[in-house]
Amino acid sequence: PATLAVAATNAVGGEAEDLALSGSTLYVAAGFGGCRIFNVASPFAPVLLGAFGHPARGGDADLAGTTLYVAGDEAGFQVYSLTNVAAPEWTATIASAASPRCLAVTGSLAFVAEALGGLKIYDITSPASPNLLGAVPAAGLATIRRLAVADSRLAVTDGQRINLYDIAVPA
Q1: What's the pTM?
Q2: What is the 3-state secondary structure (H, E, C) of 107-168?
Q3: Which of 27, 75, 89, 109 is 20 to 30 Å from the Cα of 45, by its Cα?
């Protein structure tokens, strides 16, 4: 479309740090306000389905099926089951993630960027017990600000430079 019109505006009860949309369900990482889950099937009347708090600021989120992964800064890498969106259930906190700032999930892998610039790779085949596969220094990057993953490519940026990785071919 050449133009867009605002269908609805909702307060999120915090600072909307990141969004994940799956079908007609919108997941909002709302900073210190936790997470909010909305049904947006009718964009003119979004309905709050559920909300839950985090132990710290939820800064980035990604969704895989009915599992929500949250980069929880000083609270670590958080995993929540959304099987029942009205009552989200905390599943795991990954203590080995030191102040994760952002993450990206694809298939059975989660890429988690930590505050000091490193990147950790987790096998999330079992969301209740993610397994650390390895760590990669963010070569030439300061603190990683964003990750994006599609197919076999991972893009990582600190806001100044971008590193691209082929995740189909391990180093």
Answers
A1: 0.83
A2: CCEEEEEECCCCEEEEECCCCCCCEEEEEECCCCCCCCCEEEEECCEEEEECCCCEEEEECC
A3: 89
